[in-house]
Amino acid sequence: MRRVFLSATFLLLLAGLLLLWRYRFERVPDSPSLGLAELRAAMPELPPGAQWMGSMEHPALRLTVGPEHRSVAVRMELPGLPAMEALQIRFSMAAKNLTRGKHEWDDGRALIEWRSADGVGQQETDPVGSLRENKSSGETTLVVRPSSGSSIPVLRVEHLGEGGDFEITQLEMIPVKERSLWIYGRWGLLAGWFVWFVMLLAGGDQRSIWRRIAAAGIWLGMAIYFVVPGPWKTLRPLGIPFVIGPPVSWVTPANQPARNGQASQAASSITPPPPGSEVLGRIPLQGGWIIHVKYHLARLRPLLHALLLFAPALALAWLLGRKPAIALALGLAVSIEAAQTAFGYGFDWLDVLDLASDAIGIALAIWVYRIARHQGCWKVARPR
Questions:
Q1: Confidence at residue 299, expressed as pLDDT on a 0 to 100 scale
Q2: In 322-348, where does DSSP find H-type helix?
């Protein structure tokens, strides 16, 4: 009966997590969707190497690099969009015979530049997507957010490769904000998960309530940072699309009232990079500290993953014993990779290597635990 209850409540909590994530964002009231058709109407003339394709109602943006045009870049103000806390972007992109340049960022890509609420000065840049060779993105949805509060987004599209085409075939941008359901509901969900783990770990006299509370806190703390929401700055749907509410009818910039005197200036041509901005093409690394560590220490990736699971596995073994610690640590490792796959980051042989490294870290932690237990270095939970 206990197993049935724990299984049922686990499924309910998992469903609650998926539901809260799906309804995390909602449209900003009275803010319309903005797509390629509106951008084409606001900016019909493009620089050399960039051109509008298709019809006025269903256009596509193509950037071409060849003998005549090198390093094509287009910046587009987003007409009618005010300062915001987040922007949902749904897009499809494709590269055709796109040859990468000498730098890793010399390919075709789209970015969002965040500028201060007064529209002056660039604060940060969020990558949306990048492609090379003959790859395509398929339809992708993500939410980009400025870390410095409400800001004005500017679309930047680049082709810095040595040849070929980069196309944006579909684009929809919608200002969004977090729902109260997420802001307050996540704490109730977290409390539910915490109670569930404490109940799961009940099952022996040697496991005091304080050990179970500490173990549940360790597991959930790791899960919050590495599973959901995870260390990523840009957010993706968790397997199922975000639900942000019904669409708002588009009003052309020519007929739309100015917002703080800026909407009337939105249909500008190409804006030069703001003073002090990043070198064209280089994208500042986004995300939490673990993303930066993995990037700068890419060659030590197996070691980093082993260390990532070593410390919590050792702490869980001290609190609960060997077998529960192994089960919880392996569950954490699988959860990390499953979340990355559900978020759309894919699963390949590097992820298999990560799981193997996680297993090595867990095995090393259990080895240290057993040595410490036999030598009496600390008081540990009775093994099971």
A1: 74
A2: 322-342
Phi first, then psi: what are they for 171, rounded to 5°?
-155, 130
- Please tell me the class of the 27-177+251-265 domain: mainly beta
How far is Cα 307 from Cα 287, in angstroms, rounded to an integer? Answer: 20
Taking a C-beta distance cutoff of 8 angstroms, is the pair 142, 89 a contact? yes
Is the pLDDT score of 146 beyond 60? yes
Between strands 163-178 and 34-35, the pairing is: antiparallel
Query: pLDDT digits over 275-321, tens only?
Result: 434 445 566 656 566 665 666 666 777 888 889 999 999 999 999 98
Burial profile 47-86: b = 16 or more Cβ within 10 angstroms, e = fewer: eebbebeeeeeebbbbbbbeeeeebbbbbbbbbbbbbbeb
Q: Are 326 and 362 in contact (CB under 8 A)?
A: yes
Domain boundaries, the chain: 2-22+180-240+286-375, 27-177+251-265
For residue 309, the surrounding DSSP H or E stretch is helix 301-320
d(Cα 36, Cα 13) in Å, to the nearest integer?
39
The encoded tokens of residue 267 equal 């249909």
| CB within 8 Å of 367: residues ≥ 6 apart | none
Tens digits of per-residue pLDDT, 51-79? 999 999 999 999 999 877 778 999 998 88
Beta pairing class for 152-159 and 108-115: antiparallel
